[in-house]
Amino acid sequence: MMPTTEVPALKISGLTKTYNNGFTALKGIDLTVPQGGFFALLGPNGAGKSTTIGIVSSLFPPSAGTVEIFGVDLFKNPAKAKEFLGVVPQEFNFMQFENVQDILINQAGYFGITARDARPRAEKLLKALGLWDKKDTKARMLSGGMKRRLMIARALMHKPKLLILDEPTAGVDIELRRSMWEFMEYINREEQTTIILTTHYLEEAEQLCKHIAILDKGEIRINTDMKSLLASLDIESFILDFAKPFDGQIHLTNVVKFQQIDELSLEVTLKKGESLNDVFAQLSAQGVQIASMRNKSNRLEELFISLVENNLTEKLSND
After folding, report:
1. Would the pLDDT of 304 be above 90?
2. Which pLDDT score, from 0 to 100, does residue 120 have?
3. Alpha-carbon distance 160 to 87, whole Å?
4. What is the rounded CA–CA span in Å between residue 55 and residue 181?
5. pLDDT at position 298, please?
6. Among 69, 43, 72, which Cα is nearest to 56's?
7. pLDDT tens digits, residue range 112-157?
8. Is 12 helix (H, G, I), strand (E, B) or coil?
9. Other C-beta atoms within 10 Å of 213: how many?
10. Angstrom distance (rounded) from CA 300 to CA 297
11. Element (H, E) at 271
12. Cα–Cα distance between 276 and 259 in angstroms, integer?
């Protein structure tokens, strides 16, 4: 018996979108998202991420191309395809004068789930997201962080197999962001939900996602696994902490770039493999002694710099 090939969670083929004003937001992109994990869809503002999500969530049609969600053609069988899909958009789009629990129960009704069956699911999600004590509160009375969590709960009411999170932690404090990701990791693990994430907090993508695609000017520039992508970076940044304050002007040569953060620290970017000893020598000659150093944590930020300035796309294709 021949082995079966796992159907992708999402398969986009030749997706193009040209608006009435003539602007082409997507230029025939192809993208396959495997089942079961976290997938990062990143790119600068205006890259086409929101357009892609808008088409997949049926907010507007494409100019050309196809979308399949767990093997179901979104445009030929939209009702069936959307049974597999949950979307958390950037904007709050629920009824502000409904109470929290009713928002979830009404959402379940769109998928044929009775109120009786929806209540236990709503209770489970609201408790998991720290909103159970707000179940009878009008949505407009919630804080921004609570509204963000309510959006996630609403998208999960029908137990979608694919969840798209569009900037889900924007404007959320660090502690709440951490608890939200712990919950999403639980959903991914326990309910086998595939999660597509867009974010400007690039450390989230690096920590959570095994695969990554980068959109730029309506085209997929990179589509690979996170480990290979980070290994391909040909620059590396370090934070150097001074032994004592230095308020003079620092000069460095033979580095990609440098920036004095404050009187006690300096960020230095080098090509991978280059020694820091020369940097230390130059700083010592200027009266700056280094007490400690560490890698800059946000390596994906360096990735975007490499993509734009150092032709990382070509490097990856040649590896």
Report:
1. no
2. 98
3. 9
4. 26
5. 60
6. 69
7. 999 999 999 999 999 999 999 999 999 999 998 899 999 999 999 9
8. strand
9. 24
10. 9
11. strand 265-271
12. 15
Q: Tell me the H-state helices in 163-319.
A: 174-190, 202-208, 226-231, 277-285, 299-309, 312-318
One-letter amino acid of 23: F
Q: Is 253:279 a contact under the CB 8 Å cutoff?
A: no
| Cα 268 → chain centroid | 27
Residue 4: what pLDDT? 45
Contacts for 54-60 with beta carbons within 8 Å, 24 or more apart? 55/15, 55/17, 55/26, 56/10, 56/12, 56/85, 56/87, 56/164, 57/85, 57/87, 57/89, 57/164, 58/82, 60/17
pLDDT at 297 over 70: no
Please measure the distance between the N-terminal and C-terminal CA atoms of the chain and give it in whole angstroms. Answer: 36
Strand order in the sheet with 72-73: 24-33, 10-18, 64-69, 72-73
Q: 191 with 183: CB under 8 angstroms?
A: no
Task: Look up the pTM and report it.
Answer: 0.80
Cα–Cα nearest to 152, from 166, 137, 138? 166
Backbone angles phi, psi at 92, to 5 degrees: -75, 125
Asked whether the beta carbons of 234 and 272 are under 8 A apart, the reply is: yes
List of E strands, 150-262: 162-166, 194-198, 211-216, 219-225, 235-242, 257-262
Nearest to 300 by CA among 182, 208, 195, 162: 208
- Bridge partners, 88 (sequence order): 165
Specify the pLDDT at position 174.
Answer: 75
Contact by Cβ (8 Å): 18, 278: no
Query: Rounded to an integer, what is the distance from CA 121 to the centroid of its chain?
Result: 26
